[in-house]
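Action item from last week, closing it out:
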Amino acid sequence: MFTGIIEEMGTIESVRKGTRSAVLGIRCSRVLEGTKIGDSIAVNGVCLTVTGLSGHGYTADVMAETMARSSLGMLAKNSRVNLERAMAADGRFGGHIVAGHIDGTGQVTDITRDETAVWYRITAAEDILRYVVEKGSIAVDGISLTVARVTDRDFSVSVIPHTQGQTNLADRQIGDVVNLECDVVGKYIEKLCRMDGGQAEGHPVKSKLSEEFLMENGFL
């Protein structure tokens, strides 16, 4: 589990590609503190397992499914990546719940400076946008961001200078592909609200949750 608060920008030192998978070598320093082989580190929002450690970085395997569903297959030597270790139980929860299991990718279609902030507009598929709500949270390349605007084709986020300086958003250009993970809460609520959302001895179980129930109890 992650928070979407990036700890460090690492640099891709090597990419060893197989037929459908890859092994990434990542140069970094801060996220190595206390890290052991088998630990999880999110790379541009994708949860990867540490498979090797050195004094200046680590390696991680990227399986075929991850390569197909994320932008990690586009990484090359010297690419900068956002890194976050799994959340410690004794730490502050500064962002939102991020699983590191992305829903898909989007594409940056506009970048506009607004005084000190920078606006990014990102197009995404309908099955992702259905979970994106104004003033809600979304992880973009693992960065916890607040959604400022949503349409039926895209959404926009406004990024403060600190976030730009601490992440690889400053490297993003129009046309770039980014990893997207929607807030998991909406997906759970949707499934629970489905009228055919379960089976008991072969018979459908009618959910007790409804839009009316959620409104009455202050959730909508």
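Closing note: Residues 81 and 118 are 19 Å apart (CA to CA).
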